[in-house]
Amino acid sequence: MILTSPEAVGLCPQRLGRIADWAESWVASGRLPGLTTLVARRGQVAHLHSTGLADVARGTRMTPETVLRIYSMTKPLTSLALLMLYEEGRFQLDDAITRFLPEFRDMRVAVGGARGKVETVPAIRDITFRDLLTHTSGLTYGFMQAGLVDGLYRDHGVDFQTAEASLAEVVGRLAALPLIAQPGTAWNYSVSTDVIGHLVAVISGQNFDAFLRERVLRPLGMKETDFHVTEAQRPHFAANYARSAEGGLTLIDDPATSRFLTPPRVCSGGGGLVSTVGDYWRFCQLMLNRGVLDGTRLLGRKTVELMTANHLNGDMAAMGQARWSESTAEGIGFGLGFSVMLNPARAQITGTPGEFAWGGAASTAFWIDPAEEMAVILLTQMTPSSTYPIRRELRVLSYAAVVD
Length: 404
Prior knowledge:
With 404 residues, this protein is an alpha+beta fold. The protein has helices at 13-28, 75-87, 129-134, 148-155, 167-175, 192-204, 208-220, 277-288, 301-307, 344-347, 390-400; strands at 34-41, 44-55, 60-61, 68-69, 108-114, 117-122, 240-243, 249-253, 274-275, 292-293, 296-297, 323-324, 327-328, 332-334, 339-341, 356-359, 365-369, 374-379.
């Protein structure tokens, strides 16, 4: 990857240099194993810094070639795949998904009860494509530990990460369970994007992973991104950690034995990909370019604009989610696959209205600012993402370097 001088793209080199110092301090403290940061503006990478270790036990250095679990940073790519089919006229956003997935007809919504007997009422309408893309479908996640329905997910094997079943089978299990809210009425982070992956397969007639490789990853030149780690990538594959009781590192996924070493039975559109900083930068630049990269167009300009507009009735907080991960949901809306900055003052963080972003469970993150022609990527492996406020800190450091 070729770097340009910060001055050439309106960034202060001294201020941009604070990012490296900040990263080094996190690693030196023993709280993070290693991390990579990238800041690009006006189509050029002005900052790329890797520090620390990708694998502490083996002494493997963190580098730009390190392969990491990006988890929910898979979601924007899956959403892009669905929007490519939207551009082909295959469906409309307000279409019910029952047009393609009849198992979601006559859904019920949980309103009370106990784990053994959940009280439900009929859904007022079917789930739409827009509901899935915006996480207003009424679906949830089994790991939330927040209510009766996510307990049912665990009881019935609704797990798109490790299930020993087909994607269609897991979606079928999901459709048999109640929703946690009426479709379209509340923002709840969920397996919606995994259902989108299944919809991509049903609508296109291809397996979801094959569609994503052939129509998105290969055209973008994202050669290191897939649902499993190849033999050639194994020396570069990072370990995944959690914070220990003493504030250090506890290994939770060894790269020598990780499930990511073999192709999964279920390819999770919500969180199944591994990638590198260089690969994900290509996706970010595609979005900054409004759907085209190196002469290859995946989406039209107007579709990108629709995708990155706020589709909620207000911000995420107004739709029921006061916080997400380590960040407030005040002043943050949601588009078709991304969070969308509405009001930096309300969000209490530096930013620009219209900036769009998301992150992953292992504390990875990215944000794209069309007004500033800027993208930032943070890659590390610390689960969960709420462990440390590193995303917010990097956001402040990155924007502080903008001087032109």
